[in-house]
Amino acid sequence: MKVKVAHLFKKLEEIERDSSELKKLTDRLADDREYSPVLKASFSQEIEKLEEQRKEILSIKVEKNPTLVATNSQVTESAERTNTEPLDRKKSDKPVRKY
User: Fold this and answer.
1) Does this model's pTM top 0.70?
2) Continuous segment of H or E residues that includes residue 11
């Protein structure tokens, strides 16, 4: 299955955001309520699920597409070509109109 790295980064951001929000909600729960332990357990299960998704995404191996990725030698060659071009280019040989 092909997935773009940008999509994975976006998903990682969502996971981290959701996880931090769940942690904040867990911290804000009052301990003296009868529903608190159930909610805390539910929140912690969801946090664990999110962490598992995060680990799965981080374990994915990225393959480089050779047609889209420029090699270092190609980049340096193109940089050398642009650096060796003379900075003082002659004006074109077209006649200049004088008014």
Assistant:
1) no
2) helix 5-28
| Residue spans per domain, the chain | 5-76
Q: Whole-number mean pLDDT of the chain?
A: 81
CB 53 within 8 A of CB 15: yes
Return phi, psi of residue 93, to 5°.
-85, 15
Task: Pull the structure tokens for residue 39.
Answer: 């909610």
DSSP for residue 30: -
pLDDT tens digits, 17-27: 999 999 999 99
Average pLDDT rounded to a whole number, residues 5-14: 93
In whole angstroms, give the CA distance from residue 80 to residue 60: 36
Query: Six-digit token pair at 67?
Result: 């047609």
One-letter identity of residue 26? T
CA distances (Å), origin 28, targets 18, 48, 49, 56: 15, 19, 21, 29
**What span, in angstroms and rounded, lies between the C-alpha atoms of 76 and 98?**
44
